[in-house]
């Protein structure tokens, strides 16, 4: 009888082992795989929700920035001179040159270039002054009241007097005739 109980105990242990493996492979492993899949799906959804919330905040920020830029552009367009106000631009050139010790020897307006609803008036200036004065003159023109863009600079230095002489080509942005 002792051999029967040892043998039956081994069979019972083997049966339990097989049952454990069957339960582990058949039930617990698929359940664990399903839990892993749910975890990954929840993680992906959380990332998407985070992205969507950030996207909304960024969109709001961009809309506020866009509104500020549009207001700035509207103010700039109001300050753009009309074609008949070109004399004010020339007065501004002389005013800035006087405050920065620049001598304007000649002003040669070029033909107007039409771009969309605006006019671009090229102006050629013959100037002379020190290096620092020319640099600050150009800077003040581009940052002044009117939209003036310096597109070409040709300067030569006089070694004896240390004065720069040369030409600047400016583009002045103006409103079209119908503005």
Characterization of this structure:
With 179 residues, the chain is of the alpha+beta class. 58% of the residues lie in helices and 26% in strands. Strands 1, 2, 3, 4 and 5 form a five-stranded antiparallel β-sheet that branches. It is rod-shaped, with a radius of gyration of 40 Å. The model has no long low-confidence stretch (mean pLDDT 83).
The major beta sheet can be summarized as:
5 strands, antiparallel
Q: Could you give the order of the helices and strands?
A: HHEEEHEE
Distance between the termini: 116 Å
Question: What's the number of helices?
Answer: 3
Number of DSSP strands? 5
Q: What percentage of amino acids are in beta strands?
A: 25-35%
Mean pLDDT: 83
Structural class estimated from helices and strands: alpha+beta
Looking at this protein, list some descriptive labels:
five-stranded antiparallel β-sheet; alpha+beta; rod-shaped; about 180 residues
In short:
This protein has 179 residues and is an alpha+beta fold.
Spell out the blueprint of helices and strands.
Blueprint: H1 2-79, H2 86-99, E1 103-109, E2 113-115, E3 118-129, H3 131-142, E4 148-158, E5 163-175
Antiparallel strand pairs: 1-3, 2-3, 3-5, 4-5
């Amino acid at each position: 009888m002792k051999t029967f109980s040892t043998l039956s105990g081994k069979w019972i242990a083997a049966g339990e082992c097989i049952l454990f493996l069957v339960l582990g492979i058949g039930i617990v492993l698929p359940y664990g795989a399903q839990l892993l899949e749910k975890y990954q799906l929840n993680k992906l959804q959380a990332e998407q929700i985070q992205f969507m919330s950030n996207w909304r905040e960024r969109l709001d920020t961009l809309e506020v920035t866009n509104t500020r830029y549009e207001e700035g552009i509207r103010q700039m367009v109001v300050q753009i001179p009309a074609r008949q106000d070109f004399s004010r631009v020339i007065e501004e050139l002389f005013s800035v040159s006087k405050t920065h010790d620049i001598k304007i020897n000649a002003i040669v307006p070029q033909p107007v270039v039409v771009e969309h609803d605006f006019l671009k008036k090229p102006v050629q200036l013959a100037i002379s002054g020190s290096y620092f004065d020319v640099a600050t003159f150009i800077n003040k023109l581009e940052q002044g009241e009117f939209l003036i863009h310096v597109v070409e600079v040709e300067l030569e230095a006089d070694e004896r007097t240390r004065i720069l002489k040369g030409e600047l080509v400016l583009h002045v942005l103006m409103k079209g005739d119908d503005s």
